[in-house]
Amino acid sequence: MLELARNGALRQAARDVLRGRLWLRVIWLSLGLALAAWTVGCNAANTPVQPATASPRPPTRTPPPTRPDAPAAQPTIAVTTTSGIISLTWWTPEFISPKASAPAGPLLAKLLADFEAAQDGKIRVTPVLKAKYGKGGLLDFLLAARSVAPTVLPDVVILDVAELEPAAGAGVLQPLDNLLTPEVVNGLYPFARQAGQFGGRLLAVQYVADLDHVIYNRGRLTSLPSTWAGLLAGKVIYVFPASSPQPRSGAVPFDDVQHSVLSQYLSAGGLIDPKTRHLALQEQPLLLTLSYYSDALQANLLPPEVLEASSLDDAWSLYVQGQAHAANVSARRYLAGRESLPDAAFAPAPGWSNPAPPITSGWALAVVAADPARQKAAAAFINWLLAPENAGGWAQAAGWLPTAPKALAVWGANPYREFLDRQLASAVSHPIGADYPQVAGRLQKAVTSVLRGASSPNDAAQAALK
Predict the structure, then answer these.
(1) Is the pTM here over 0.90, yes or no?
(2) What CA–CA distance (Å, rounded) separates 269 from 427?
(3) Cα 100–Cα 105–Cα 109 angle in degrees, nearest 5
């Protein structure tokens, strides 16, 4: 009996010990769960809540309001890896990308690869293709992203020079004055530096260009007069587009005049302010220009089709059809089609007392990145593209004009290259300014009125000046 009692007591003690250990486990488990719950709660309190969407995207920050004349500091996609590699995003149209048709596309792909190799792989460039103009185009996407999704902004962008003013006014572009090398900036033709200047700062740099000049039939003219008086005396039928041009970009809806008309007005003494690039409408230059139109019409030297011509391609067609001795054409069109016109010679556009200064168009590179390290990397890329050998070679392959004398020299010595050098050196960047649409609209109305025979040059000029 004593033995049984002793065994029962031992079993009871064992059961008590087990119960004690079980309770200890329960207590420890409860403490662990409570600690985990507290940790999760703390983390949740410090993590922004993201709304559920079909395509999750990183949180965006609304940038502070900016002045139109000062670039805002916008975040860009931070793709710097732990190895120190900076991956730049470059928004560009297809025709200025490795996807362009040969030989321009493959050459640009090689330039990108050579740039990355020259940087020892520390900087990489990813081209992201955008439409040239319109909804979803380069400028439209740039301005929209700045407001609603600044994290998707590129590091580098290329824009039509006609769209630089609204981009600069929106504060999207970063100053380049202290980023680009002096050799690159000082080596540009004056118009190419001027195109990217806004508010006294360099916000973009023109990469490629185009301009007007004249071609004439050597079988009908031994040479082309350089003045309007010479055209009238030599009875030269000379055509150029004179109707209101179609805007290149729907994002810049303003009235404009043809580059041909604008350069003729400048040749008669019209002024573009060198600092503000505002166009002044002045009586004497306007009267001289309109008087030439009137005299040429009366002498049957200015076909009525010029008033219907809305582009240089229309003037090219009039020339090819034999309706003119001479015509304004774009340098790009002449480069592409000169083999088909063996009798065509080239010359500057005639003006009042001297040849008319060409008005340029083209595309410009700009930096969008706000981070200083990314800005330096982006500037290194732009410096590389604008190096004379690179810029001249790619422009020639793509059928554009380079924007620096040393880049043009890459084309080699030939009469047309030397002619282009003189034209580019005297070329003018397109006017800008809030009042330009009104000035251009009045100028275009005066031109149309005279060419239709609805007004005398003096009446049309006075109406425009009012």
Answers:
(1) no
(2) 15
(3) 135
